[in-house]
Amino acid sequence: MEAGIRATSPERIRILASNYDCGDQAYIDGLAAMADSRKRGWWEQYRGNLPQGLLDVAELEWFATRLRTLQTVHVPGLLQLSGYARAIFDSALPPLPKSEIELRVAQRMQRQQVLERETPVEYVAYVHEWALHMQFGGRRTTREQLQYLCEMSEQENIDVRVLTVDVGAFPGAGHAVLYANGAVPQLDTVQLDSAHGGEFTHAEAQLSKYRAHMDWWHAKSLDPKASQDLIHSIARQL
After folding, report:
1. In the beta sheet, which residues pair with residue 24?
2. Is 0.90 surpassed by the pTM of this model?
3. Percent of the chain surpassing pLDDT 70
4. Within this chain, do residues 58 and 126 fall inside the same structural domain, yes or no?
């Protein structure tokens, strides 16, 4: 049940909570709401064809109430165009088969529906300035990607902030982080990117560390308007 292999029901969740003497009603309600999802998630269509970690990320984003990400090398996945995403997957070692690259691109594009569904998730993306200069797919693809990034940042639920190079050293250098807020703090999850796939952590001590990283980036990065101006400026130079 914990691994998501065997389905459960809200009623069973409440029985287990009672047996475990859990009195946190908000936490119980949050767990029950997740178990009350009767439909198979859209990501299930990729089961057996893509790594489990990619499916887990899609499910994590779907049930989150708020998403915050730190990106130091490329534009956040939920804001990528297909050509840009394809260039990233095409750079993997060992090389991925073309069929799997296309599956990964399609799945990444479908993940973006959390930003545009009837109740879109709140999304805050902190992007390092150097990530805006990385030409995944070449100059034209990068220029189109940066223009799209600015367009998406104008949506009410999307907040894009750039950390400029003159800030210098920063916490979390060298890796990407996704912080997903659950219905209650106990359901918060951090996902870290690695060469072998996504890694997930739920421990409060680690969550606290990554919240501190997010707060630092928020304080040091440009505000949304200044970030848009910088992105437009870089795009015009391509």
Report:
1. none
2. no
3. 96
4. yes
